[in-house]
């Protein structure tokens, strides 16, 4: 867990909603519990999955865009990925990654572009006739 993830987690423990511009109290009830689970999943994957966190970081760090090290250093999973992927690439391994959120795939694309890794993205918006081509490209690579 990164320092930013730890801070956001502490806000959640206090019952504050991180998805809004200002930290607001979380709702009560069964639906609120489900929202909390979704928030925890987002937090574990990458803090920029929350709508305003990236904007607030950009303001705080006084940078026009967040990229490079700032993109992966704010997430424990991405820091680990940044240590593992170069070793796999050096030994010519291919990597297949699965995500449950397309927004996480977008963040991963930014990371892969920063590290200049080749990748193919296959999600629900990929046309059926392109899917077969993608799979063939991966198998032949």
From TrEMBL:
GO terms for molecular function: helicase activity; hydrolase activity. It comes from the Eukaryota. Gene3D superfamilies: P-loop containing nucleotide triphosphate hydrolases. Keywords: ATP-binding, Helicase, Hydrolase, Nucleotide-binding. Residues 77-135 form the Helicase C-terminal domain. PANTHER family: SNF2/RAD54 HELICASE FAMILY. This is ATP-dependent helicase brm. It comes from Ascaris suum.
């Amino acid at each position: 867990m990164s320092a930013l993830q730890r801070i956001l987690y502490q806000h959640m423990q206090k019952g504050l909603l991180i998805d809004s511009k200002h930290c607001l109290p979380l709702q009560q009830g069964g639906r609120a519990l489900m929202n909390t689970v979704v928030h925890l999943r987002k937090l574990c994957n990458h803090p920029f999955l929350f709508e305003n966190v990236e904007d607030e970081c950009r303001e705080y760090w006084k940078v026009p865009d967040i990229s490079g090290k700032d993109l992966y250093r704010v997430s424990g999973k991405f820091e680990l990925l940044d240590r593992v992927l170069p070793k796999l690439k050096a030994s010519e391994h291919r990597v297949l990654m699965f995500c449950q959120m397309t927004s996480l795939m977008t963040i991963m694309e930014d990371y892969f572009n920063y590290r200049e890794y080749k990748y193919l993205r296959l999600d629900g918006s990929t046309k059926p006739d392109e899917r077969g081509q993608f799979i063939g490209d991966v198998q032949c690579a």
